[in-house]
Amino acid sequence: MTNSKDMLTIASLEDRQKYYRNKALKLEQSMIFAKEKLAQLKEELSEKSEKTKEINRNHQNLTQQLSDLKKDYEALTLRHREIQDKLDKAEETIAQLKQNQRATTDLSHETYQRRVQGYERLLGEVQKEINDKDKRIAVYEKRLAILENRLKNERKKVEPVVETGDRGTANYRAISYINYAWILNGKKSLIQGNVVIENTGSLPLGTPTICFRFHPGDIAALKGHVLHEEDALAGESEQEENQWVILDMEDESDLNPTGEIWVRPSGSLILNPDQSTAFTNFQIPIDHSYLTSVRIECFVFFGEDMYKIKCGNEIVVNTSFTKQDREPIVKDDDHGTHPSK
Fold it and tell me: Mind listing the pLDDT tens digit for each residue in 208-223?
């Protein structure tokens, strides 16, 4: 009987030992997961902080540029008024000379006529400068509004980054990259390319949605092998399978408040493990009149925001122009190819 009790006690101790060992193992796993999650959150916070600082710097620079531009505009407007006054006086003098019929009328008339023509040329040049300043101010104000909107959103949410760990995303894996060519023609250029998406994980991924984020935001434009959402709905019967569609913004004004463009397949598209898809033949037109640097980031969201990644590369274009504003000089292009014509 004693032996049986001893055996039961030993068995009970062994069971308890296994229970606590398993519990300790689970706690250790939870601790490792918590440390990994904490490190990830710290990295996200650091990225968010750097992104906010960058937007703040851009915002300050753009505000200063806009302020300087408005001062130049005011000076030009004042100069325009002065020239217009001189032109009006010259025309009045010519009219008086014609009316008085003086002996020196012909000579004075020719002199004043040349002077008027000179004023008219100068007035035309100043008016051209003012028109250019008007356009530049409008561009900078739009650019500034987008930066302010991004800065406001930056304080509300974390930037899109690769997510792993919680919500069962540990087995979701994908890669994405951009293949593109840059075609330059004078002060305008065109980016043509593809966004390739591949499921490298062990679980299927839901329909991908691609976000193009433009820097500066006011150049946001996307053409090529893509439809707008309302056009896709109108021609749904004739639409090819999985045509890529631009998701229309709720704000119907001309100003894109975010400087982002979102596209996704028109129908459901499940990416199984080792399967890939691509958004092909997109085109981005760029006018370099008021900018020398262009950067376009790309993010991919799968399903109902269950997993999201950033493309492995970005579109980067840097140019400058000669004083005559004739031939662009290519400074740098970190990704892709760029035939000059």
Answer: 999 999 998 889 999 9
CA dihedral 204, 303, 316, 290 (to 10 degrees): 170
Helix or strand or coil: residue 221?
Answer: coil
Residue 267 DSSP SS3: coil
User: 119-133 as b/e, with b when 16 or more CB fall inside 10 Å?
Assistant: beeebeebeeebeeb
Top-tier CATH class for 162-332: mainly beta
- Beta-carbon contacts of 123 under 8 Å, excluding residues fewer than 6 positions away, are 80, 83, 84, 87
Phi, psi of 336 (to 5 degrees): 80, -170
Instruction: Kindly list the distances between the CA atom of residue 105 and the CA atoms of 90, 114, 119, 120, in Å, as whole numbers in the listed order.
Output: 14, 14, 20, 21
Q: Which uninterrupted H or E stretch holds 19?
A: helix 2-100
Angstrom CA distances, 242 to 64, 182, 269, 299, stand at: 46, 26, 8, 19
More confident position, 169 or 55: 55
The model's pLDDT over 109-150, given as tens digits with 9 standing for 90+, comes to 677 677 778 777 877 887 787 788 788 788 878 887 887 777
